[in-house]
Amino acid sequence: MYELLKTDGLAKRGRLHTVHGVIETPVFMNVGTIAAIKGAVSTTDLQEIGTQVELSNTYHLHVRPGDEVVKKLGGLHKFMVWDKPILTDSGGFQVFSLAGLRRIKEEGVYFNSHIDGRKIFMGPEQSMQIQSNLASTIAMAFDECPSSVADRDYMENSVNRTTRWLKRCKAEMDRLNSLPDTINKHQMLFGINQGGVYEDIRVRHAQEISELDLDGYAVGGLAVGESHEEMYRILDAVVPHLPQNKPTYLMGVGTPANILEAVERGVDFFDCVYPSRNGRHGHVYTNHGKMNLFNAKYELDTRPIEEGCNCPVCRTYSRAYVRHLLKAKEMLGMRFCVLHNLYFYNKMMEEIREAIEAGRYKEYKEEKLRRMAEGE
């Protein structure tokens, strides 16, 4: 159940009650694609840095170690030793981005594994079955993620098929949640809005899927090559047509600035690989913008990555030491940068929630963006 606690303009401060605990929103979900955060970050680390939700990937876990294996081991929560909410994405995006050779049919998608080339079929029912085996808190509907530059005819046909697939996902999820051997019989289902950069297709699709009364709604198919301005234009058009009394999730987004802008437009769930990916390359986020710790100017810098930051790295280590580790290709350097970045994102979401509660979100957003743009 989702409680809308406060609004400030379109910005929402909410609370999603789940079988694995409460999610305070707006929230950033820390991405652990294969049931692990890249950069040697453990679930005990996630607890320490204030993570609320971990996100894992249906496609990757289906390919390896296999969702049946995870089910035999008691589900994802037991497998990775994490007792808070987990969201699994449906595998749709990976099927379309990784598969290369694929055939889309009404029943689903035929494609080859990117690991060993074996033939795989995935459709709405299969995606729900895999996610049920993983026993995540929130399952995502199986959708087609068309190219953002697809023409109007293709996009309309694709979105109509995604709606038909969503109805099949809902029916299958209801069936699975009623079975005696299902690990999580309270698994939630979020639907996904598609339509590329065509506002009218997006709005019509949002209205159609809203009628299905799902647990939450995502906006998919953005952050895949269109400009930030186009993304904000689509959010301005679409979010008002999604239920305000349900979570709104912007998939795969994004930079701190993207998140700040999207919160102002009514989005309250986010995920992105940026903090971990950038961290593994020595790029760290601060309230004064992004820093590249490989820069020579940090060689003798005894300050923490960010002064006043309470992450496990900044409490103890200097920029000079972290830079040395990175230069030496020591894994600890990557780990430190990823830990700091995830803490920064989680802390920013906490600040966002407080600002909405205080009715001063716009001022907070503008001040945060100004500081990050100024640099050190």
Features:
TIM Barrel, 14 helices, three-stranded antiparallel β-sheet, ArchSynthase1/Queuine_TRR, eight-stranded parallel β-barrel, 2 domains, queuosine biosynthesis, 376 residues, Queuine tRNA-ribosyltransferase, metal ion binding, glycosyltransferase, alpha/beta
In the CATH hierarchy, what is the class of the largest domain? Alpha Beta
Please name the fourth-level CATH homologous superfamily of the largest domain: Queuine tRNA-ribosyltransferase-like
Rg measurement, Å: 20 Å
User: What about the largest sheet?
Assistant: 8 strands, parallel, barrel
Count of domains: 2
- The CATH architecture of the largest domain is Alpha-Beta Barrel
CATH topology of the largest domain: TIM Barrel
How do the strands line up in the largest sheet? 4-5-6-10-11-12-13-14
How many individual β-strands? Answer: 16
How many DSSP H or I helices?
Answer: 14
Helix content: 40-55%
